[in-house]
UniProtKB/TrEMBL annotation:
It comes from Asbolus verrucosus (Desert ironclad beetle). GO terms for molecular function: odorant binding; olfactory receptor activity. The chain crosses the membrane at residues 32-52, 160-193, 247-267, 279-301. This is 7tm 6 domain containing protein. It is a multi-pass membrane protein. One of its GO terms (biological process) is signal transduction. It is found in: Cell membrane.
Amino acid sequence: MAIEERDHFEFTLKCYNSSGLRQTSTSRRRFISVYILYPLLLAMYSLMIFNIRYQNNVFEISEVFESVSSFGHLVARKTILLVHAPLFEEIIQDRSCFWNYDLFGKSIGKKFRNQTGLCVSLIKFMWIGGVMSVASRCYALHFVEGYLLPDTCYIPGNSIYSVVILFALELIFYTEAIFMVGVFDAFFLLMCVDLKIQFTLLNKALRTMKFGGIVNKKQEEIRWNQLKKCFEHHGVYKKLNKAFSEFFVCTYFFAIGGMCIQFFIALDGIVFRPASADYLIKIMLYIAIVSVLIILVVIPVGEIEIE
């Protein structure tokens, strides 16, 4: 039975289409995202990594790793969406055959829709937090001496034109990273919640099946077909796990590593070298956002495993 028309998953599908990373996105959006922005992102990311050879102490090296960690989230998400694009389409297609939330009553269906609606609200909250984080990083440049870019990067030729170009690119990719939360993270979160709902419906359906009193082969075949229908969702779970397996590794590396670096810089700013309050607020905001991202990954996966 197809899911109802009022579907919160449409939120992430609209973001996915708008990103230009989906196979069905318009050619203009896809050209800009895949053939212009993605190569520029990889080029700038390479400059950030290359910048480590010019650092002279552990504090400067930690700032390079901060940049690598911050932009690594975007690089990982875009790469996974491009590499596993056919698999994402399969998951979307399989989801169109999920059971109706109202299968066991309107009240239960409303409860399920509220759960998916809460996920969309969380993603929008992450957007607001992301905008605040970007604004604080750019604003902190006015108070931290020696900083030319929000995230440190190798500047070819040390030219003012290179600084302007890199600054503009960082702002563009900051914006794209915030929007990517509505594409990648929302897709994962909503699919996890939806699978949990489907497994709940599956358990209810299994309890309604009665295997006693089967008197002929036709009734037995009907029961087996019902069981096969119930366990189709496990195939979707396997596809979801395959599509996001690399993401789990990248999230652990960039999120945990990035947070440790931020704590190190914050400790340095508080104990060893005086730092402005704006700079410390920027660090705390970054840590808070990354912590929420980790929670959005860990809790849904754990709940699905329980189901």
